[in-house]
Amino acid sequence: MIEKIQSLKAEIEGLTASSAAEVEALRIKYLSKKGEVSLLFNDFRNVPADQKRQVGQELNILKNLATERINALREALENADDAADDIDLTRTPAPVALGTRHPLSLVREQIISIFSRLGFTVAEGPEIEDDWHVFSALNFAADHPARDMQDTFFIQRNPDVLLRTHTSSVQTRVMEHSQPPIRIICPGRVYRNEAVSARAHCFFHQVEALYIDKNVSFADLKQTLLYFSREMFGPDTRIRLRPSYFPFTEPSAEMDISCNLCGGKGCSFCKHTGWVEILGCGMVDPNVLEACGIDSKVYSGFALGMGIERITNLKYQVNDLRLFSENDVRFLEEFTSAH
Ligand code: DAH
């Protein structure tokens, strides 16, 4: 018995633990009801009477030793934990790199917000379209060059499945399913079969606006354009309309704004004209209304379409279209402070 006690003492003195769970395992192994030390106490009754005093003393010493050793191990671990509490929680953390909004998204949101103040709501349509929604319903003649392979991406050589070349297709979709009053703005991506360069891209973004009701006139269009231009480019902005041609509007116009860099005095940006072109517009051609099931004798409307890249270039002087889709963070980070 004494020998057993001595060997256990040596064992207990050498105990180590690296986690609270290990300490607990040791406590169970030695000190629980069925632990090694406790079992020795159970054997105590078999010790001959003349040895009881000595063995009893030794057993008590062993039990104290085990208790102290295990408590010491536990405390040592808890103190190590306390060291973690010394971390300075008030210290400023390492900066987290926050993403920025893409300049095209910023400008798109701004355009939507301006038009929504005039009561326009957002409408969207598919990027994969058919000929009717993109061309035929919009009064494009069968031999119009925009339908040509050179401009339009066709899918699976099927001339009736194509990537939309303009967001005017969303006009068609809304008009064929609803009756006036219609007041929508349609932002979206469009595709054209162009060689990629600083000035042209095979995909870009447009916003289309359409307003159809009774008695909508060219004056309404003009006032909307002026309001939009001043909200977008500042209160001193002037606009001018030049006659133009689009199959889906009659009359049609292109709109210039006074150059927002030189204020109209003339600079290299506006090629010393004082004006920069920003969008196409016009009164919706009655043929388009009729093709979409709207009575052109009762209703009239205007439409306009602009390139988001173009507006962004004017606002932020980005002069290479490729920057918008390269996702170079050095470029994107320049817009961190833009709202
Ligand atoms: N769809 C034309 C384009 O892609 C832009 C446009 C011009 C839209 C005149 C219109 C408009 O709604 O009235 O170039």
Short summary:
With 339 residues, the chain is an alpha+beta fold. The chain is built from twelve helices and ten strands.
Pick out its properties.
three-stranded antiparallel sheet; 339 residues; seven-stranded mixed sheet; alpha+beta; binds 3,4-dihydroxyphenylalanine; 12 helices
Could you describe the 3D structure shown?
The protein is of the alpha+beta class and 339 residues long. It has helices spanning 2-13, 20-31, 36-43, 49-85, 103-116, 131-134, 168-177, 218-233, 286-291, 308-316, 323-326, 329-332, and strands spanning 121-122, 128-129, 154-155, 158-163, 182-191, 203-213, 239-246, 249-258, 275-284, 300-307. β3 and β4 (158-163) form a beta hairpin. The longest helix has 37 residues, at 49-85. Residues 166, 168, 208, 246, 249, 280-282, 303-305 line the site of 3,4-dihydroxyphenylalanine.
- Give the termini distance in whole angstroms: 83 Å
Strand order of the largest sheet: 1-5-6-10-9-8-7
Kindly state the percentage of residues in helix.
40-55%
Overall shape: it is elongated
Number of separate strands: 10
The mean pLDDT is 90
Query: Which sequence of SSEs, written as H and E, runs from N to C?
Result: HHHHHEEHEEHEEHEEEHEHHH
Can you tell me the residue ranges where pLDDT is under 50 for at least 5 consecutive residues? none
Counting DSSP H or I runs of 4 or more residues, the number of helices is 12
- Assign the structural class, choosing from mainly alpha, mainly beta, alpha/beta, alpha+beta, or little secondary structure: alpha+beta
Radius of gyration: 40 Å
Strand content: 15-25%
Largest sheet: 7 strands, mixed
Bound ligand species: 3,4-dihydroxyphenylalanine
